Amino acid sequence: MKNIHYINHTHWDREWLRSSDTYRIRAVYMFDMLIEILEKNSEYKYFTYDGQTAVVEDYLQIRPENREKISKFVKEGRIFIGPWYTQPDLALVSGESLLRNLIIGSNIAENMGHCMECGWIPDAFGQIQSTPQIFKELGMKSLFVWRGFNYEYTDDSVFLWEAPNGDNILTIHFPLGYGYYRYLPTDKENAYKDIMGFVERVENRFTDGEILLMGGSDHTRPQESIAKTISELEDMVGKDGYTIKQSNPEIFSKEVKKKLEASNRKLEVFKGEAKSAALGRIHAGITSTRMDIKNEMKKYEVILPLVVEPMSIISSTIGGKYDQSIANYYWKTIFKNQFHDSIYSSSPDSINETVKNRLLNLRHGLNELMWLNLRSLKDKLDFTAFKENEEAVVLFNTLPYKREDLVLLNFICKDKEFTLKDENDNIIPFVKVEHMEKINTEIEHYNGTDNYHDAGEILEGTKFNVQVKIKGDILPKMGYKVIKVCYGEKFEEEVCGTVKLIDERTFENKFIKVKINDNGTLNVLNKENNVSYENVHYFEEKGDDGDEYNFSPPVVDKVITTKELTPSIELIENTSYEVKFKITFNIETPLECIEHKRTEEMVNSTISTEVSLKDNSKRVDFRTTIDNKAKDHIVKAIFEDVECSKESLAQDHFGTIVRNNEILEQVGLKNGATEEELPIYPMQRFVKLNNTKNTFAVLSKGPCEYMIYNNKEIALTLFRSVGKLGKADLLIRPGRSSGYRLDAPSSQLLKELTFEYSLFIGESENIGQLFREANMLNVPVPSRQLNIFKREKHEDRPWENSILELPENVELTAFKRAENKDGYVLRILNPGKEELHNVNIKVNFGEGKAYLSSLREKAGDILAMDNGIITIPYINKESFVTIIIK
Fold it and tell me: 93 near 59, Cβ under 8 Å?
């Protein structure tokens, strides 16, 4: 006998075509209905609620009186929730964001009575290679997936999926998607016909005879009649050699495992990411729409775990107050924006505005948390040594190693002449910024990291805004430092930097020499090995006839590059710490796409790039601002290597991923694929060609999509400009539209857009170095000038303190308070391809004990700890370990 498992479920988009409040109202009605059904009908056994908990919270904000009822049904195993907080996109967000989403979501579900023990990814647009590792670490027993897989990957919909670190998990693929149909017919004859029709289509995908039928789809309600209908079908399907029952993901997984144990059948093993469009659209190009939103999201998912939380730990070691719950509040805000339809921006304008409003909330909240941590130093340190002409500046380095970059300090000065000194009156060299950076003067910055308390006096001329840059290597590892601004003392010492201007367009430091060509491209010389790269960094603009889901080329296109243009070139910074040029193009492009063709009507946009080389750096940094006047187009920054490779290597969530530059095997539109697969790839923060002798890598502070041209050029997508949510009959996606054919004019991004990225050049491939360079590019140094403070002793705290240090071959992804408030949590990543043994990390806070921990922060084996040195016996390749220090 074969067993049919009917899983009644819903896929609940928290927001998509309509707002979260609209869908919250629907959720209230849906949950009310579900509670009523479960209370009065014991034969209605299970309802699977999309693997997430955010919508349960949404409901309980309206119906708090029903918490105990829902908790009862969750505990009884009739409602299944978790382990996610929201269903995110997987590729667009960081590894740590995925982990926190699952930690917070599974804790909420557990507190409600039970967390579903199965991973649930019905609708992400493709699957990342680390997914098995993540859910294995969370303690899940199995994983259910859809998009990205096809029938060619495995012969069976039940298989093992293996991550790069070797972790594997039982995986069940929905062979017809997560919604075979929305509602089962109430008439048993029609229900029988439907059920057996689907069984016939999928049973060959379930070798063990446990057949999965998904009853439900987007925003479907619980169907009370299924209990009666399925009961009536038992005899009918029995005559055909089947049983049928209401089921749930946990039951299905357990019964599949029983069959496997009994048969001793060896499952197929799938390895890597799943990006096939054979069975479901994966929407190539979703990673570069609404870059105004995606750039901000990238920023805040870095600032919260790598700045705000570590700052809070540092502050707490000198008596500051810190509770993880306030950080989790903002994590939830991030997760709501990382919900797959939200981060994709595959929504009408009003919904994208909702996402932007949450970004504003993140900006306000995270700036205030940084300010409170800066202020905690003001209230704890001994300031009796300060003279009347001296002010304090406090700085935090939240990386557990020395910074090798420059730090920008923004002052409001009562005297333009000053020196910077440390606690022992040693001079701290600095250079004044000639081309001052714009500082946000909104209210959260007045009392936040940028001190504009006296901004009015600048306008009146009684105070002056001055910006300086100092070397980041004066800062302690994972700690804070206080320095002095000493007014009336002229800084006359020579600044010993290595950057110099050779001629009007050529500049160098000890590692790199750069020449700006007439067309704005760069010739870059690696001075360490004398390898020269020519015509580096130009812009490509071409048409995009797609929508918020897919890039699609117009039938008639016009491709434009800046290599044929002559820009204006202006020197804007010239110190021994930094040389910076501004390169500005006026670029004429077609106005828009009409009827799948670019128009003859042209429009002018400007592309302005600040190109910077800093002291002791192997990076050339770029800050590009585009005043976009054109519609329906895509703009990329192109970097040409001197070597060639048929593969790229990009940063992934817990290591790196190697991809072919071309799609070697795909089903294709002619064979029924849902869209043409394009070699448009997501990345975390860097990409390079694979298996090259030298390191030529593009690092990003926002843009996260790339292609490789001609096996030689790295094409970093800066943005796509489109005006439709969904569009029909695209060249690469013919037929129906995705979503709905609605206008989304704000997604044309007709405004100024700014992008930051870098070119890193080294002698050989060093993945650890790329991770650290990407961190230094993305993780800022919070600082604050304290011009109003009491020159007295508050507490006996040092002016400088370091509390954590990591060796070169590992990275920190989390440094936080434990969820149960009992101790501190460290998450340490080995991003390399080799296992690590006896990794020593140095801590300098408290006299506690250290334990290996589960992802859910359950303490395990105690770790050796000697004089502040914690020894981690083993970290697998491309893997993380979680440590609790109590």
Answer: no
**Strand 47-48 versus strand 79-80 pairing type:** parallel
DSSP structural state of residue 176: T
pLDDT attached to residue 14: 95
The pLDDT value given to residue 613:
98
pLDDT the model gives residue 492: 82
Provide the residue type at 495 as one letter: V
Whole-number pLDDT of residue 58: 97
Q: How far apart are CA 748 and CA 723, in angstroms?
A: 5
With H, G, I as helix, E, B as strand and everything else as coil, classify residue 635: strand
Kind plus residue range of the DSSP H or E element containing 365: helix 349-378
Q: Which of 208, 130, 116 is nearest to 166 (CA)?
A: 130
> Phi and psi (nearest 5°) for 518?
-60, -30
Residue 143 confidence (pLDDT): 98
Q: Which domains does the chain possess? A: 2-276 (3.20.110.10), 286-365 (1.20.1270.50), 390-492+782-786 (2.60.40.2210), 500-778 (2.70.98.30), 806-886 (2.60.40.2220)
* Per-residue confidence (pLDDT) for residue 787, from 0 to 100: 75
Strand-pair category, 811-817 with 538-543: unpaired
Residue in the block written with tokens 């300060």:
386
Task: Report yes or no: 771 and 437 within 8 Å, Cβ to Cβ.
Answer: no
Residue 806's alpha-carbon distances to 49, 338, 398, 447, 813, in angstroms, are 41, 30, 12, 33, 12
Looking at residue 455, its pLDDT comes to: 59
pLDDT of residue 452: 55
- pLDDT < 50 regions, the chain: none
Peptide bond into 553 cis (omega under 30): no
Supply the pTM of this predicted model. 0.97
- Please give the radius of gyration of the chain, using alpha carbons only, rounded to the nearest integer: 29
Closest alpha carbon to 339 in 361, 319, 355: 355
